[in-house]
Design brief:
A hairpin with a 6-residue loop joins β9 and β10. α4 crosses α5 and α8 runs antiparallel to α9. By secondary structure, the chain is of the alpha+beta class. The strands form two sheets. Strands 1, 2, 3, 4, 5, 6, 7 and 12 form an eight-stranded mixed β-sheet that branches. Strands 9-10-8-11 form a four-stranded antiparallel β-sheet. Bound molecules: (R)-mevalonate. The site of (R)-mevalonate has 13 residues, from α6 and α7.
């Protein structure tokens, strides 16, 4: 049996979430927590076993391809509400990613061959750390690998995007690209992914509120505010773009004080956009009181995660303790993790799919 195993990291948005949806620049980094997908050929059916995503499902290849056609029609019509409705069926996004990867390798006439896919992940779910994108990118990569294709990050990210569309409506594309490219990424819809060739030593503590981050709802809230108060909201998203631009310089220079300051400024803007949450505010305040150089929510907000920028190891420890005392879960992890990559597959040590 031809099997292929691929992993992809989570992601942390450093600057510019939400404004990126409106075409502005944002900066993200891959985090060292990973989803791992293993794919093998399977006659005529798609089997998905992803316990960390509560998915265990089997479908006929022909049905998965039909629903991919339907998904693509809805995407052409910009019918994101129907897409999100389809995405509520937990197995649909992963099956759509598999079908899309199969179409890419075999063209429209896919004879017989389906896929068995298993996915596991240590990226916390629905937190803002990109657990869905990590699973979609790893899965797309594993299917390409089964058919001997290269793990080109752009190709893998493009295939995986359908999964994010089904989960979130019309995401900017920063999540799937950060996860696929890894490292640090600047992203703007008009330019696409712009990998930053940097490897700054920045110490952060990520604080998870444990409150689900409802990405599409928070993006929708933003769209409403933009309609209701266009001048105010446009000014906020322009300021956020300026922060992201200054953020690139600060990262290049490893200027921790400036990175912290920019995080604080960006957090105020996100709060003004109405996407913070009391639990996020508590963790931000606790981090700053414990001596963090800056702190902000990260990702969609409305719950989810924040991160604090720390000067040294001692400060990182104090901030992590403060996050814990404030009711959050601190995560200390490396930023700039490797993007999508092949993993060794040993059929003897791995349960048969
Ligand atoms: C999600 O990780 C970040 C948002 O900017 C949404 C998106 O970019 O699609 C809130």
């Amino acid at each position: 049996m031809n099997s292929f195993r691929v992993s992809a990291p989570g992601k942390l948005i450093l600057f510019g979430e939400h404004s990126v949806v409106h075409g502005k620049l944002a900066i993200a980094a891959a985090v060292n927590k990973r989803a791992i997908a293993t794919a093998s050929e399977q006659d005529g059916i798609i089997i998905v076993d992803a316990p960390d995503y509560s998915v265990k499902h089997e479908t006929k290849l022909a049905d998965a391809l039909c629903s991919l056609d339907e998904i693509n029609e809805l995407r052409e019509k910009n019918d994101f509400e129907s897409l999100k409705r389809m995405g509520r069926e937990a197995s649909t996004p992963l099956e759509a990613v598999i079908a899309s990867a199969l179409e890419r390798v075999k063209g429209k006439c896919i004879a017989g061959k389906g896929i068995a896919l298993s996915v596991s992940s240590d990226v916390p779910k629905e937190s803002g750390l990109g657990s869905g994108s990590a699973a979609f990118v790893a899965s797309a990569g594993a299917v390409l690998g089964v058919y001997g294709r290269k793990l080109d990050p752009k190709t893998v990210a493009d295939i995986a995007y359908v999964g994010d569309v089904l989960c979130h409506g019309k995401p900017s594309g920063i999540d799937n690209n950060t996860v696929a490219f890894g490292g640090y990424l600047a992203f703007k819809k008009s330019n696409g992914p712009m990998p930053l060739k940097i490897n700054p030593k920045i110490r952060v503590v990520i604080g998870s509120t444990g409150v689900r981050a409802p990405t599409s709802e928070m993006v929708q809230i933003n769209r409403y505010w933009l309609e209701l108060e266009p001048d105010r909201v446009k000014k906020i998203i322009e300021k956020a773009e300026n922060i992201a631009e200054r953020g690139v310089d600060a990262l290049r220079e490893e200027d921790m004080v400036e990175i912290g300051k920019l995080a604080n400024e960006n957090h105020v803007l996100l709060r003004e956009l109405g996407v913070s949450h009391p639990a996020i505010e508590e963790l931000v305040i606790a981090s700053l009181k414990a001596g963090a150089l800056g702190a902000k929510l990260s990702g969609a907000g409305g719950g989810g995660i924040m991160f604090a920028v720390c000067e040294d190891d001692g400060s990182q420890k104090r901030v992590a303790d403060a996050i814990q005392r404030a009711g959050g879960t601190p995560i200390i992890t490396k930023l700039g993790a490797e993007g999508v990559r092949k993993e060794a597959y040993n059929s003897k040590t791995i349960k048969a799919l």
